[in-house]
Amino acid sequence: MSASQASRKPTNLSLDAELVREARAHGVNISQAAEAGVRRAVADARAEQWRRDNAAAVASSNRWVDENGLPLDRHRQF
Fold first, then answer.
1. Whole-angstrom Cα distance, residue 42 to residue 20?
2. What is the tens place of the pLDDT at every residue in 30-61?
3. Which residues contact 70 (CB under 8 A, 6 or more apart)?
4. Between residues 2 and 51, which one has the greater pLDDT?
């Protein structure tokens, strides 16, 4: 769902006063910028959680490849 189609939730934020002044001076839409920053932070947190949740499986797969090589390595043309 795009940001323009998502339901909106009025939210109060405390931001650095100088940052807000500079953002306004440059015509930055503070709500959109804050939402983009939160969206990025959530994506980063999800990615980090995935890495933690799957670390053992990735390590196991890497160990298998180290011990056995790539399954289709004999078919590689490079």
1. 22
2. 999 999 999 999 999 999 999 999 999 999 99
3. 76
4. 51
Exposure letters 45-71 (e unless 16+ CB within 10 A, then b) = eeeeeeeeeeeeeeeeeeeeeeeeeee
Rounded Cα distance between 28 and 46, Å, is 27
* pTM (global) more than 0.90: no
| Dihedral sign (CA 64, 67, 65, 76) | negative
- Residues sharing a CB contact under 8 Å with residue 30, sequence separation 6 or more, in sequence order: 15, 20, 23, 24
Contact indicator for 3, 35 with CB cutoff of 8 Å: yes
